[in-house]
Amino acid sequence: MTSKLDFDRNIFRYRSIDSLLGGHAELENQSIYFAPAESLNDPMEGLRRVVWRGDRITWRNLLRHYVICLENRITQALLHGDDETLDPNAISVFQTLDNAPTPQMRDFLKQCIQSVEQSELHATLLDFLANAEREVSVTELRQHLRLVHFHWLELIQKAMSDQGFMEARSSMEFDEAGISANLRAMQDLLPKLAEDHGESVFEAIFEVQEMSSAGIGLHTAFNNFENASNKKQSLIFDFPSEYLKCLLKLVYPPWYVACFSKRHDNVAMWSYYANEHNGCCLIFRKLGDPDQQNLRLKGARGFQASRGEQSRVFRERQDLALRSVDYTSEHPQLEFFSNLGRISQKDAMEGWFTDDDGKVSPLSSHLTDPTSRERWLGSHWDRFLPPLLSKHPDWQHEGERRIVLHDSLGIHDKPADRTFTYDYDSLDGIIFGMNVKVSDQVKALQIIQPKLVGRSSDRPFKLYQARYNSRTGKMDCFDLHGITSAPTLPNR
Fold it and tell me: Are residues 220 and 137 in the same domain?
């Protein structure tokens, strides 16, 4: 039986047999895929408590940005079939008036904005937000956008049909005056509630509203299911929430992770990540000292271009940091308007901090003063990584370590460019799950054995078989001694 000391320099990666031997052929390709945030198993990973604290200029520009993105979303819907659901990550949050593809498109977006801004509901909502003088939570802002979304959707669609971009459609009744009156009444009531109960009452109020809206939305969608296609459901019900999620792309770049574990002996992990013990646990060799440990992988590093050719991604070996995951239910707070880190200073100033008369919001001081900007940039990027290395305490049994890639330049946009490879000097061995079929073990050995020829490490490559130890309640493993050098394995 192996002792824990045998694995002091190792890190483990659980995989299913299908991942190793199936379509992805991870064992043959020696590949490790870096998954995007939205595909991770814990939706709280990377979570930040985002708040908005703005003035009239920044709030007006956010509402304009919402109109621009909504117009783009309607255009996307026109290009999709009725049975298609719109991609929740494809909302064009980097679209602005200034980077519109044509002058005609810029003029039309201005027309949509003007149509919305002439409405009573827009004026009421802008007053509500501009006079809030407090942090507006994502829950509250989502509720406000849901409140106006259907009306603004109708206004933009009418503008599009007037221009011949889509067929005219009958408008539905909308009580703009009543909703505006309710919003003004809430604006008057909230200061009194805060005085009596503290500002924490705001979040409670909007959480109750959100639960009520969810029920009403489900009821409406159910009653109109026969007449609403998938893309219409996406456009009508999902857009406000999806917009706010995509809006955070303006703050930090996309990030991708490859997950490993300090443990090879956890029953739940064998069951969850290795397909009910039918998979394997890969044993990787860590590099570096205990305070800074790395894994050597080969993958996309940057762009290079030859004369007369388009830029292409180049790959090279890299020592990538293995970082420990912190298990906590606390999430750091992030203020949106002061953290627009993924757009240029020019775009931030023109698109978010300046009004039509050229007046600049005082909230832009971190960008306009050189000393403040340098200090802000440092603190902004210092806050990027910690939330990506945290999970809820319920996952603490995993003892996870992870490699994080972030991508401001689009190097890892394609799945192929998020797939890295290892060599057999980095792979020390494999543990077969206790339910792995002998036939699958043989297939794995047929792949492994020829690759060991090129292994330059003097450490022996080992194969282990997992078994449950009823005395300790953990998974043990025993060494399948000598099997990798057996000469009788059949040829592939």
Answer: yes
